[in-house]
Amino acid sequence: MAEISFELYNNQLIQKLVGPSDNNLRLIEKTLNVEIGSFGNQISIKGSKTAIEQAKAAIDVLYHKVSKGIDITEQEVKAAMRMTNGGLDKETAKNLSDIVLKTKKRHIYPRSATQAEYIQEMMDNELVFGLGPAGTGKTYLAVALAVSMMLEGKIDKIILSRPAVEAGENLGFLPGDLKEKVDPYLRPLYDALYEMLPAEQVDKKLAIGEIEIAPLAFMRGRTLANAFIILDEAQNTTPMQMKMFLTRLGENSRMVVNGDLSQVDLPSGVVSGLRDAIGILKNVENISSVTFTAADVVRHGLVAKIVKAYEQKVKNKKDA
User: Cβ(143)–Cβ(188) under 8 Å?
Assistant: First the structure.
């Protein structure tokens, strides 16, 4: 067991950091297996050396956030611990936590170091591949950056697309016209938009075409300029579909392609266009790839455990 003690200098901020009944500190204790004492402006931490360092770094990040007027919720505490996992020094962690995407309804901050890297890569590159399991924020953050850039006048249009392919489903057997058939597959994209913009603004932008949500097949033959273009569930594209989509990129546009290569729903023997593209384009300038893991899952805590269990099964199969 090791122990450190340190001071924080603003009692008002300390109260916001520790939370009611020190609940925020208790969450750090439980997660990192440390003991944290708070006495006035004095904080002490007991535990293993590695756990102490991470707990201290997480508290520094949270103190940095409250000093900027950010309310500390349970999600912020968990984000601070994810941000400092893996040995990031506190200054780097604080700088990453300063990244913010501003939309009409909320300000969105990265909740892990990988999320921060992903946002930065999307800002810096014209084409970014986001790879990894569900629940890591790939699509949500891409939509958030697209909305933020539209509100700043940097782009004129947001285009959101998915291949209409799902395990065990066939569009031809679903009721309704084409829009009614494909809308359920595009629902996650609608949900993200309504979390970031007032409903009347989303509806207006959809009506006038400033925001377009369409199945991948609708992209053929187009050149998409002054736009932020997102392809979701890209693991379910064929190589030909992926090439078609990537070559839609026009002037002053950015493209984000997201997918989970462990969840391919294509027919047996069909190569995933996402896997194919990653291999072909890995050395091309201005194209970046960011890989998320179960440690980046920001949904219910059980989701991360489920993802890890499936990852372990795949690893065991490879090792056998």
Answer: no
Q: Exposed, middle or buried: residue 293 (CB in 10 Å: 0-12, 13-18, 19+)?
A: middle
Dihedrals phi, psi of 110, to nearest 5 degrees: -65, 145
Inter-residue contact 241 to 259 (CB < 8 Å): no
Angle among Cα 118, 124, 128 to the nearest 5 degrees reads 50
Mean pLDDT over 273-281 rounds to 95
8 A C-beta contact, residue 75 and residue 108 = no
| Dist. CA 25–CA 168, nearest whole Å | 46
Q: Are 129 and 274 in contact (CB under 8 A)?
A: yes
127-131/287-291 β-pairing: parallel
Q: Residue 126 to residues 120, 215, 249: CA-CA distances in angstroms?
A: 12, 22, 9
- Integer Cα distance of 110 and 123 in angstroms: 14
The pTM is what? 0.77
In this structure, what DSSP letter does residue 20 have? G
pLDDT confidence band for 168 (50 / 70 / 90): very low
For the chain, helix, strand, coil in percent to 5 are: 50, 15, 30
Closest by Cα among 212, 204, 208, 256 to 234: 256
The rounded Cα 163 to chain-centroid distance in angstroms is 20
| 4 within 8 A of 53, measured Cβ to Cβ | no
Q: Distance (Å, rounded) from C-alpha 120 to C-alpha 147? A: 15
Q: How confident is the model at residue 174 (pLDDT cuts 50, 70, 90)?
A: very low
Res. 86 pLDDT band, cuts 50 70 90: low
**According to the model, what pLDDT value does residue 84 have?**
82
Q: Give the model confidence (pLDDT) of 17-58 as tens digits.
A: 999 989 999 999 999 999 999 888 899 999 999 899 889 989
The arithmetic mean of pLDDT across residues 115-128, rounded, is 93
Per-residue CA distances from 31 to 15, 93, 301 (Å): 21, 18, 11
